[in-house]
Design goal:
single chain; about 675 residues; mainly beta; seven-stranded mixed sheet; six-stranded mixed sheet; 8 helices; about 30% strand
Length: about 675
């Protein structure tokens, strides 16, 4: 009896205690680490671009790699972004025990331990493969301690409400703070070879990048190959974290060259003093068959890279996504920053040996070399070359015969037939003939036309410049600094809040005034502001890009659009052209070639001009910038505002806002 009374009192005590705690903590959020990064609220439905999506509709990304039969999936992936390291403790006995180099969390790199920024403890980040017309849902979870981040889906146009997920900080979204999650949701109507990377600071140089492959429902080029299962990401790499490079980057020490080249995150770091060989990337092809290899120029420094497949030529079939070109055969392919080329390799050599894929920097970067391994399957050959074998087989410097995408060429039409056959520029390639060339004088095609001239420039900072500067970001102009990177004498500066959906909340002085935008106004000092150029929706746009210096070629990327390449040529005659002469140059090329190549990244030659044309049918704020990371971050960028605010898609419900805050006193 007494026992029952004691048990009853104990039960009443716990019931009262539970009610008390429930009252005290009513409305508070329970912190549950295990559920923190699960898909949000699996019982709810949210309105995203084009459709309503419930979390129970999500298909894990690994099941989206399939035969594309036209049935769309909603593919879900979570990316955990964190500081990580190459050649860390997870690598254990690597490279002496090569199996350890494949341990989960082991990023072998080139065998030099250094801090990186990784997604899911991988570098490159997980490869995403989906089908055309799938919807991609990616939860990016920032678990870094001190850095924000964003992810740009390079080459995807992001239309019909997906503009907010283009991933450019302060242009389309706020940076994702530490400890926060941001969900990207967009449909992928185009098929082809794309990639994704951080668009925040220098994070791309530290490893935050990955391949994005969208397979076609109907592949028109299927008859040209037998297999399509190989991706090559060309990554330039340093043994020092980027923040260390920036802090030592002065006029006296300009390190814009990498230490090595990674293929799919791997490099043997082979050089004359190499004492340790790391596992090299392996590209497997089936003996006797033709394989499609998707090559992604995921490089960031000021170097383009030549690629040769030992004893094999390749046939280029697409550029920058899925844009078809008339097949071009070459033995050397040059890939510049952010460019993509799909090539077909016929495995018609002996299967009793391994072949090297040679990679070498071009121009001033020719001392930078690396390799991957081309292996016929089935094969039981040992892929671990000895030092003696490798040095007896390497063929550096690369010997050029027929070069595709010859970025070091002037691309001049005056080249003779032999020169054009050995140095093939983008402008020499024949694109999709079903796409008519844009003719701004055609009033039916182009009721409204707009032409912009953009001069890209790099110039050193002088003492006079320094003394007139105010506080700037760390490696913007300052004491013993580097270069002024400008477009039309404007150093691009980020706004304080996003332009898409919130442009009016930026404080006065954010945007460039008329005198800064006006090319006819001579400036003693470059303006530093947010350069926005308005374009009417559905206007035909002609962009004239010029680089006057003989210092470098520049890969320029345009967001939200694929543009027809109407002209690409280098030469001293372009340096001193007036605006009227440049417009006349564009006019004379307005209908030239009915089969123009289409790209989202184009190399502007030294002292050269590129002319791009597109129909402005995608409203929004679109970034245009040099894809060399240092140049873009230094200010070599601008914004194309297509359409008015009423033409832009509505801001998603609950979309994060980022604004200045100043206490208001009353």
């Amino acid at each position: 009896m007494n026992f029952c009374i004691i048990m009853l009192r104990t039960l009443v005590y716990y019931i009262v205690l539970s009610l008390y705690l429930a009252t005290v903590y009513a409305g508070s959020k329970h912190y549950d680490w295990s559920s923190q990064y699960k898909p949000v609220n699996t019982s709810s439905k949210c309105r995203y671009p084009d459709k309503t999506i419930s979390d129970c509709d999500l298909v894990p990304i690994e099941f989206c790699k399939r035969i594309c039969d036209g049935t769309p999936y909603i593919c879900h992936l979570t990316l955990y972004i964190e500081q990580h390291t190459t050649f860390g403790v997870a690598c254990e006995g690597c490279p002496e025990n090569m199996e350890d180099c494949s341990n989960h969390g082991c990023v072998p790199g080139n065998g030099w331990p250094r801090s990186i920024i990784a997604a899911n403890r991988q570098m490159p980040a997980p490869e995403i493969e989906v089908c055309q017309n799938d919807t991609l849902v990616v939860d990016v979870v920032n678990i870094m301690h001190e850095s924000t981040t964003t992810i740009h889906w390079h080459g995807l146009r992001q239309m019909n409400g997906a503009q907010y997920f283009d991933g450019v900080p302060y242009i389309t979204q706020c940076p994702i703070p530490p400890g926060n999650k941001f969900r990207y949701v967009f449909k992928v109507p185009e098929c082809g070879t794309f990639w994704y990377h951080s668009h925040t600071g220098m994070q791309r140089l530290d490893g935050l990048l990955g391949a994005l492959i969208v397979k076609c429902i109907y592949e028109p080029l299927q008859c040209m190959y037998d297999y399509d299962n190989n991706t090559m990401m060309v990554i330039d790499w340093t043994n020092t974290p980027t923040r260390n490079l920036v802090s030592s980057f002065t006029l006296d020490k300009q390190n814009l060259s990498p230490d090595t080249i990674l293929i799919n995150g791997k490099s043997s770091y082979y050089d004359k003093s190499a004492s340790r060989f790391m596992p090299a990337a392996i590209i497997d092809v089936v003996a006797g068959k033709k394989s499609r290899i998707r090559i992604i120029g995921s490089c960031s420094f000021t170097c383009a890279y030549a690629i040769q497949f030992e004893s094999h030529s390749v046939t280029i079939i697409t550029v920058d996504g899925g844009h078809k070109i008339k097949p071009v055969v070459c033995d050397t392919l040059i890939v510049n920053a952010a460019e993509r080329f799909d090539v077909v390799l016929h495995a018609n050599q002996s299967c009793e040996r391994l072949y090297l894929i040679l990679i070498q920097g071009v121009g001033k970067c020719q001392s930078i070399t690396s390799y991957a391994i081309l292996r016929y399957v089935p094969s039981n050959l040992d892929v671990n070359f000895t030092e003696t074998e490798l040095r007896s087989r390497t063929m550096f410097p690369i010997k050029y015969n027929t070069t595709c995408n010859a970025v070091e060429s002037t691309c001049a039409p005056t080249r003779n037939k032999e020169q054009k056959s050995k140095e093939i520029c983008i402008i020499d390639m024949e694109g999709d003939c079903n796409t008519p060339p844009i003719d701004p004088t055609d009033e039916i095609m182009c009721p409204v036309s707009k032409t912009y001239i953009y001069d890209f420039s790099l110039s050193p900072v002088t003492r006079d410049n320094i003394e007139t500067m105010q506080y700037e970001q760390f490696f913007r102009p300052g004491l013993r600094s580097i270069f002024l990177a400008t477009v039309n004498d404007i150093i691009f500066s980020n706004p304080s809040t996003t332009l898409l959906g919130s442009a009016k909340y930026n404080p006065p002085g954010t945007f460039c005034n008329k005198s800064c935008i006006d090319r006819s106004v001579e400036k003693e000092m470059p303006c530093e502001c947010t350069a926005v150029y308005p374009i009417c929706l559905n206007a035909c746009v002609t962009l004239i890009l010029r680089f006057k210096s003989n210092f470098l070629t520049h890969p320029v990327h345009i967001h939200g659009y694929n543009a027809q390449v109407a002209f690409q040529e280098g030469g001293l005659e372009f340096v001193n052209m007036s605006d009227e002469e440049l417009i006349e140059l564009a006019y004379s090329n307005r209908t030239k070639s009915c089969c123009r190549p289409i790209k989202d990244v184009i190399t502007v030659p030294r002292q050269g001009v590129v002319i791009l044309q597109f129909k402005a049918d995608n409203p929004g704020y679109w970034f245009l910038h040099c894809h060399w990371s240092f140049h873009g971050e230094l200010g070599m960028a601008l914004i194309l505002k297509v359409g008015k605010a009423k033409d832009h898609p509505p801001r998603p419900v609950g979309f994060p806002k980022c604004r200045d805050f100043i206490t208001h006193c009353y």
